[in-house]
Amino acid sequence: MFSRHGQVEKTEVSLAASLDTVVQFAREALPDTVTFDVAIESSLAKATAVVNPTELMQVFTNLILNATQAMDDTGEIKIAASHVDLTENTASGFGLRAGSFAQIDVIDNGSGIPETDMSRIFDPYFTTKRIGEGTGLGLSIAYGIARDWGGTITAANEADGARFSVFIPSSLQ
Ligand SMILES: Nc1ncnc2c1ncn2[C@@H]1O[C@H](COP(=O)(O)OP(=O)(O)O)[C@@H](O)[C@H]1O
Ligand SMILES: [Mg+2]
């Protein structure tokens, strides 16, 4: 999987359209007790990114599945997307190059992430789930894909759950 990175075929996609597809898929696949609140800032309407569409789906379905599991299948997942220009300073804090990014947040109102786990959740095979419920590979794969794009994924706790922010290098048409 990781060794394939750099060789997967990438193409220019509309991020707003891709997010629509992701949410439509998730709504169909998940129980009705999981609801979605999607807020795509108008600045993102014309944003495109050069990615492999299958990998883009994989990143967001992994995050949405984790959110669903953290909420025990009941709650609201908020997806908030905006366009951000990261300056040298902010970008280097994330290990990124300065530039134009889409920031797409997946926010849940589930269990949140214990502070002691925060530094390990992106490690391969780190899981707090029972055998059969998790492999511990979802976040490490998603992170590897995002880094391959020149982006990243960050995690933080909210007052009520967790927030994962996906940064994707993006340009405005
Ligand atoms: N939305 C979330 N809320 C709380 N904890 C999370 C969330 N997403 C991931 N985690 C934590 O990170 C761990 C690793 O996630 P992941 O790599 O997807 O593996 P898995 O889901 O198979 O356990 C999870 O086991 C869980 O402890
Ligand atoms: Mg997972």
Query: What's the arrangement of strands in the largest beta sheet?
Result: 2-4-5-7-6
Largest sheet: 5 strands, mixed
According to CATH, the fold-level topology is Heat Shock Protein 90
Q: In total, how many beta strands?
A: 8
Assembly category: single chain
Bound molecules: adenosine-5'-diphosphate, magnesium ion
At the fourth level of CATH, the homologous superfamily is Histidine kinase-like ATPase, C-terminal domain
Anisotropy-based shape: globular
**Structural domain tally:** 1
- Indicate the low-confidence ranges by residue numbers: none
Number of helices: 4
Task: Draw up the topology in text.
Blueprint: E1 11-14, H1 15-29, E2 34-40, E3 47-51, H2 53-70, E4 75-86, H3 88-93, E5 99-107, H4 138-149, E6 152-158, E7 161-169, E8 171-172
Parallel strand pairs: 2-4
Antiparallel strand pairs: 1-3, 3-8, 4-5, 5-7, 6-7
Helix pairs in contact: 1-2, 2-4
Bound molecules: adenosine-5'-diphosphate and magnesium ion.
